[in-house]
Design brief:
Layout: H1 2-20, H2 25-39, H3 44-77, H4 82-92, H5 96-110, H6 116-133, H7 138-152
Helix pairs in contact: 1-2, 3-6, 4-5, 5-6, 5-7, 6-7
Length: 159
């Protein structure tokens, strides 16, 4: 019971600090769990074992995501996705329904690597000016991207 309460308090503290924006996320994600573990009575050796076990399970996924973000960001900068985006935008024209479908298609295709950053770096710069021109709410853009990513995360290589 005590561990659960401390866990919830730890999450609340981290979220509150991130929302305020006055702290850097990296030390926050390191210091708060360590302090919470010390409050729970774990020794530094036990905490190190927890960290070692967690890192050993997640490092390969982290390296994969870092590579995919760098690779797909570079491909986006080199213009790899420009023909697809331009074709979809041209087909959509000023039809709001077609613009939302084009947004979903771009988000699905750009999220094939499973990385949030590359999906956002490809989809938002391409579609936000169109949304502004058609007086569409940017929230719709974010919701469509989120829905497309949630579907793509069901793939084996998804986030």
């Amino acid at each position: 019971m005590f561990l659960g309460v401390v866990g919830f308090l730890m999450v609340i503290i981290i979220v509150a600090a991130l929302i305020r924006g006055k702290s850097n996320p990296v030390p926050l994600f390191v210091m708060v769990p360590v302090i919470a573990a010390l409050i729970c009575g774990f020794t530094p050796v036990q905490i190190f074992d927890f960290v070692k076990a967690g890192v050993s399970k997640t490092w390969s996924t982290a390296v994969l995501f870092i590579f995919s973000i760098v690779y797909f960001s570079m491909m986006g900068d080199m213009g790899l996705f420009d023909p697809m985006v331009n074709w979809l935008v041209k087909k959509a024209g000023s039809n709001i329904m077609m613009v939302t479908i084009a947004t979903a298609c771009i988000a699905v295709i750009s999220h094939l690597d499973g990385a949030l950053a590359s999906t956002l770096l490809i989809t938002i710069p391409a579609m936000l000016p169109i949304y502004k021109k058609l007086h569409m709410r940017p929230v719709v853009l974010v919701c469509i991207i989120g829905a497309a990513m949630s579907i793509m995360n069901l793939l084996p290589w998804g986030g």
